[in-house]
Specification:
- The protein is an alpha/beta fold.
- The chain has three domains: 9-94 and 234-317 and 468-526, FAD/NAD(P)-binding domain (3-Layer(bba) Sandwich), CATH 3.50.50.60; 134-227, no CATH class; 321-459.
- It contains 19 helices and 20 strands.
- It has helices spanning 25-35, 80-88, 118-128, 133-156, 161-179, 183-191, 194-200, 216-226, 238-250, 293-300, 307-313, 334-337, 352-361, 375-378, 380-385, 416-436, 452-459, 502-517, 521-526, and strands at residues 18-21, 41-44, 56-59, 62-65, 71-72, 95-97, 101-106, 111-115, 230-233, 254-256, 261-267, 270-276, 281-283, 286-289, 322-330, 343-346, 370-373, 390-398, 444-450, 490-492.
- A seven-stranded mixed beta sheet has the order 8-7-16-17-18-15-19. A five-stranded parallel beta sheet has the order 10-2-1-14-20, with helices on one face.
- A hairpin with a 4-residue loop joins strand 12 and strand 13 (281-283).
- Helix 4 (133-156) crosses helix 8 (216-226) and helix 6 (183-191) crosses helix 7.
- The longest helix is centred in the first third of the chain and has 24 residues, at 133-156.
- The model has no long low-confidence stretch (mean pLDDT 93).
Length: 527
């Protein structure tokens, strides 16, 4: 596991062309694309590890990812997703294809397998719901149309203001035909069947909103992304940042951890540098924030004249819900336990909106979802490095308000009451896990629970949010969610600029670099 270099005050004296706040995949991608064009890039990371949601952590013989559970499309070497991953990793990132049955949607009465490729998916859905073939094909066509219409919508974000405004209506109206509807509206309009709605929206945890609230376009992007199956990085998700940083450094770029930013320094409406939490100031003609809009506009511009206006824009969006994750270590291999790589989505009933609402009102209600993932079964390198061991993860939603009492306490020092609550939650999650993966019970050797406060401490999300800001129909109408900010030379990147997930964050780095260089880097990538 790579040891990341920490920030030292003497580094502030060096000259940089670009400073990037945050080392998630969006910041890394933007940094690499700009370094390839001769810019000297500095990436500053608050955490003690680089990579944002792509980093991992180890305990003894166990290693878990914190945000990457599966990625679609990368098994196809000609897909734009694979091409961009290859570009930022200098071709060194390797992938392992998961089982064809990538997701299993589980309800109390029945379970439904999502199996690649798309024709198999359609056949299986028709098998579960006889007589729906025409409607199922219409649904998949809607998914395809929604995704295709997003290309010009997202491309518009990279254009200079005058051109973006001039072409905005033409480049966005087809996308809005899909994004303005909720997932529930579209699916019920086709099928008018609550059970089918529950099954087809069974991956809602991949973007964070149940079907009654989520934009259909967001749902469509997730569905389409996995229709041909899922993949996992060989050597765990940390290889994404490790290969990217190695490439960045080969071009003269620098990345330092333990380098939290206190403020973006502005002068006469122009971003000119950053002030670190330790007090040092570093100047550069271009500043990119990959820290999310809540942090960037809500905190980092506190002394800029436009701070109150920018902070006011945050009222037009909502942070996504937070989550808890139980990390599990087993003293038998994934093969011995017959775990397989299929993700499990476990639900108490078909009405996802009602399940979430019940839980948010009373956290003693049934978990609205428990997502179970098997990272060691997805990664052939794990068994070689840790023979006879396996890992699992189980994720469910959390209500941020219930963690308020401890929000100002330091990491790992939040007291007995907090630890008791974590123990109780872990036991509840394990009960669900053992019901669906009974073979894990006898091999369970280690558990560790992360809460919204862990996310706040380690990922620097103010309310422990999982996916930045909610993907409602309204979110896609916020024109200010784009790379170029209202402050000259300050750019944004990350999932708030495009949409949720590592692939979207990857492409947001490309869109931000396109906006800075005024070149269509997507066209260059595909060519």
């Amino acid at each position: 596991m790579k040891k990341w270099p920490g920030w030292r005050s003497e580094y502030a004296k060096e000259k940089y062309d670009v400073i990037i706040i945050g080392s998630g995949i969006s910041g890394l991608t933007a940094g690499i694309l700009l370094a390839k064009r001769g810019k000297k890039v500095l990436i500053l990371e608050k955490h003690f590890k680089a990579g944002g949601w792509t980093h991992t952590f180890k305990r003894d013989n166990y290693e878990w990812d914190v945000g990457i559970h599966y990625i679609g499309e990368v098994h196809n070497k000609w897909s734009p997703v694979r091409k961009l991953f290859d570009l930022v990793s200098d071709g060194k990132l390797e992938w392992h294809k998961m089982d064809a049955n990538y997701d299993r949607i589980i309800f109390p009465d029945k379970q439904y397998n999502f199996v690649a490729p798309r024709e198999q998916f359609i056949d299986d859905m028709v098998g579960y719901f006889p007589g729906t073939e025409d409607k199922m094909r219409r649904y998949i066509q809607k998914v395809d149309e929604a995704v295709k219409s997003g290309r010009s919508y997202f491309a518009n974000k990279a254009l200079p203001d005058w051109l973006g405004n001039f072409t905005y209506k033409k480049m966005t109206h087809k996308f809005f035909n899909h994004s303005d509807k909720t997932t529930r509206e579209v699916i019920m309009n086709i099928f008018n069947d609550e059970a089918i709605l529950g099954v087809l929206s069974g991956q809602w945890g991949d973007h964070g909103l149940p079907p009654g609230q989520s934009s259909f376009s967001m749902h469509a992007m997730v569905v389409r992304h996995y229709l041909d199956g899922g993949n996992y990085p060989i050597g765990t998700s940390r290889r994404i940042a490790e290969t990217a940083v190695e490439y960045l450094e080969s071009m003269g770029g620098k990345l330092y951890v333990n380098a939290g930013i206190d403020e973006i320094i502005t002068h006469k409406g122009k971003a000119v540098g950053v002030r670190l939490e330790k007090g040092e100031e570093v100047k550069a003609p271009i500043i990119i924030s990959s820290a999310g809009v809540m942090n960037t506009y809500g905190k980092l511009l506190k002394n800029d004249n436009s701070f109150s206006k920018l902070k006011g824009q945050l009222k037009t969006v909502n942070p996504t819900a937070s989550y808890i994750c139980l990390y599990m270590g087993l003293n038998k291999s994934a093969e011995e336990l017959k775990l397989g790589s299929t993700n499990l989505w476990i639900y108490p009933g078909y009405d996802h909106d009602k399940n979430v609402s019940n839980f948010m009102l009373d956290s003693n209600a049934e978990f609205p979802v428990v997502y179970v993932s098997f990272p060691s079964a997805k990664d052939p390198a794990f068994e070689k490095e840790n023979p006879g061991y396996a890992t699992m993860e189980a994720i469910t939603v959390a209500n941020w308000s219930e963690y308020d009492n401890w929000k100002d306490e330091p990491w790992k020092k939040r007291g007995d009451d907090y630890e008791k609550m974590k123990t109780k939650l872990s036991e509840r999650i394990l009960e669900t896990v053992y019901k669906h993966v009974p073979q894990a019970k006898g091999a369970m050797a280690y558990t560790e629970l992360s809460t919204p406060l862990s996310v706040k401490s380690l990922a620097n999300y103010p309310k422990g949010e999982l996916y930045g800001i909610d993907h409602t129909p309204d979110r896609f109408h916020q024109k200010w969610l784009k790379p170029k900010s209202e402050i000259k030379n300050l750019y944004l990147t990350g999932q708030d600029v495009l949409t949720v997930g590592v692939t979207s964050a990857l492409f947001s780095g490309l869109v931000t670099a396109s906006a800075i260089t005024k070149k269509n880097l997507m066209k260059e990538l595909i060519r």
